[in-house]
Design brief:
By secondary structure, this protein is mainly α. The protein has helices spanning 7-26, 35-39, 45-67, 78-94, 100-115, 121-124, 130-145, 149-159, 163-180, 182-187, 193-216, 222-244. α5 (100-115) packs antiparallel against α12 (222-244). The longest helix is centred in the C-terminal third of the chain and has 24 residues, at 193-216.
Length: 245
Amino acid sequence: MIPMQDPLFWLLAIIGVIMTGISKSGFAGGAGVVAVPLLALVMPIPLAAALMLPLLLVMDAKTVALYKDSLSDLKSMIPMCIAALIGIAAAGSAMASLSTDVLQISLAILCIAFASWDNLAPLLARLPGAAFVWGGLSGVTSTLLHAGGPPISIYFLSKKLEKKQWLAQAAVFFALMNVTKIIPYTLHDSWTKDVLIAGLILFPFALIGVKLGNLLQQHISQANFVKICRGLLAISGTVLVFKLL
């Protein structure tokens, strides 16, 4: 169950939701992975992921609306979108068989790895078939942990898009993925009463995050924002590792 009476849960949830909204609309989702790691400190990972999905759908809709005028070259997105759908299907079929400990250590490793992903991006983005590699990985990590932003951002780095084009393409990509993820989450009975109630309470913070992200991207560099989120990822990943010891 969601710890509805725990003030720490609400503090972490509000911070995570707002930062995810900021990341989605201001920084192409690359740092939006912080919400589930933060929530995982006080609740099971599958429950945290289920709580975030409806909120992500709201953020995606608002972000697509903000940047729809900057959409271009959508045909180039087809390979990574196909790969993402394959990744979602693969991860969805494995959701019931993966233990919480496996998810927790996987999330911890991803958090710590993504905390230093800027050092890996220039090399990894040049891999052969990069669209399929990073699109597929994004589908897998997004389905299990809502951590699809960093893998696809590694790919987008190689494309050298103008900032608003990057934001627009990322918004469409994540919207497609999150709508598709409704299927595996529904099949695994993820929608509990507590999840829906908590989601409704957190709904305004999702809108606040998207609004702030749109404003901040006009004044703050992506590099500085990601540095803050990278630090939170490193801390969350380390704490999750120690929770398993």
